[in-house]
Amino acid sequence: MTRTVLYQALSPDEQTRIVFFQRSDGAISYTGEKFWIDDVPEHDYHAEYWAAFTDSGSIFDSLETAIRELRVEYPWLASAAIPHD
Question: Which domain of life does this protein belong to (predicted)?
Answer without folding.
Answer: Bacteria
